[in-house]
Design a protein that fits this description.
Blueprint: E1 9-13, H1 18-29, E2 33-38, H2 41-53, E3 57-62, H3 68-82, E4 87-90, H4 106-131, E5 138-143, H5 157-177, E6 182-189, H6 204-214, H7 223-234, E7 245-248
Parallel strand pairs: 1-2, 1-4, 2-3, 4-5, 5-6, 6-7
Helix pairs in contact: 1-2, 1-7, 3-4, 4-5
Length: 254
């Protein structure tokens, strides 16, 4: 393991479980000081305990990404604690689906847009505001989805629309702020080894059988594989990668 992020401060939203937790652990393993944030203190504390167990450095800060004041305060606390904000990963997201557009509950539409789109916007605004004051700028990675700009599926229109918006917002923000020294990119995972990819009543073993039949790769991606893509985009190796949307889905959207 290299130490690509030694001396860097990394903020990860939605870090209490799943992809967000794996991303936080991966950055800490490569030397970063990690701020893990989300709405549930207990799950964030578990993430930090795992970082501490491996000898890493991190703190948990609760915040709701749908509230701009809380996101600005979160970035402020990050800088107060570690002195800078070098990398941000806007991973917090929610999933709702299972009905066609005509039957879509209004509350589902608003909930998906509030977290998946507006939450990313608020993150970008607060993160860029800090990063462009720093001599070394920074890097931001937004977590979109292969469902959205890359592929569609029945019954998931609201989720698909929200994640397509993340892809578009990422590209637009990347062009707006590369002159500020801030690189912005996205990762679009397909089904990964999290609860979100399980159908109602489905076990991990059931999912494995289903994926052998529907995925070109024949399995879900591990959260560590998604994290590896995030770390690449945030690293110096991707210094000329701006406004990309890296799909990690086992070939489903190929």
């Amino acid at each position: 393991m290299t130490a690509r992020f030694t001396g860097k401060t990394v903020l990860v939203t939605g870090a209490g479980s799943g992809i967000g937790r794996s991303v936080a652990l991966a950055f800490a393993a490569e030397g970063a000081c990690v701020v893990a944030t989300g709405r549930t203190a207990a799950s964030l504390d578990e993430t930090i305990a795992l970082i501490d167990k491996e000898g890493g450095k991190g703190v948990a800060v609760t915040a709701d990404v749908t509230r701009s004041d809380e996101v600005r305060a979160l970035v402020g606390r990050t800088v107060e604690h570690f002195g800078s904000l070098d990398v941000a990963v806007n991973n917090a997201g929610v999933f709702r689906g299972g009905v066609p557009v005509a039957d879509l509950p209004e509350e589902d539409w608003h909930a998906l847009l509030a977290t998946n789109v507006t939450g990313v916007l608020f993150g970008l605004q607060a993160e860029v505001a800090q990063m462009r004051t720093q001599p070394t700028g920074g890097a931001i990675v937004n977590i979109a989805s292969n469902l959205g700009a890359h592929r569609r599926a029945p019954g998931l229109a609201a989720y698909i629309a929200s994640k397509a918006a993340v892809s578009a917002l990422t590209r637009a923000a990347a062009l707006d702020h590369i002159s500020d020294g801030v690189r912005i990119n996205a990762v679009s995972p397909g089904p990964s080894a999290t609860a979100m990819s399980l159908r109602p009543g489905e076990s991990d073993a059931d999912r494995a059988i289903r994926m052998r039949n529907v995925s070109p790769l024949g399995r879900v991606s591990s959260t560590a594989e998604i994290a590896a893509a995030v770390l690449y985009l945030a690293s110096p190796a991707a210094a000329s990668v701006v406004g990309s949307d890296l799909v990690v889905d086992g070939g489903a959207a190929a």
